[in-house]
Amino acid sequence: KLSWAYNWTPDPNGLKANVVYYPMLWSTASPHSDNWDTHAEAAISNGADALLSFNEPDIASQANMSPADAAAGHIQYFAKYAGKVRISSPAISSSEESNQGLDWLSQFFTACDGKCQVDFCAAHWYGPGGEDGATQFLNHITKVHEACDNKNVWVTEVAAQSGDVDAFMSAITKALDSDEYSFVEKYSYFWLSEGSLMDSASALSDFGKIFAGITS
Known about the structure:
With 216 residues, the chain is an alpha/beta fold. The protein contains 6 helices and 9 strands, in the order ββαβαβαβαβαβββα. Helices cover 33% and strands 17% of the residues. It has a 3-stranded parallel β-sheet with strand order 5-6-7.
């Protein structure tokens, strides 16, 4: 059963009220930050108990923010909600390049100097399918957990881009639902659309059924 959702915007765009929507502040730039507080407060009133920080600021084609700028923006836009709802770290990519991914996250925490409210870390992963890809993914989110001072992790985007997607999905869902990975609080495959989790507007794909727990 679909119980929560998010997108790259703070606006739920007509999502049914019985599905909790977690608003994301994609970046501090306009129009992303326009009316942020209005959308955040509306989401909280509708049951959201968390807010999501910037989208892949470590990647030039995404939010494209330095750790220092992201820290300043995080404090500016999220500090007022500390104690009211839980707040994520910026959602990092799975890049292993210098100044990206986990390296960027480490620099972000340094730039925060203890002033950024982060209750859990958000992370993305894209890579190969199959059981080997699943192992890479699980190793990566374990490292995110450790880099986040052992706080919980939300995997807000994950997808196998090659190989056996069904095997990948079977392996990661089994692992993520186990006690070993109990630190992964939520996980969301990319994405709910035809050609991915859906075969059509009303039918799940084969790996969509695995994700939904209908088949294994």
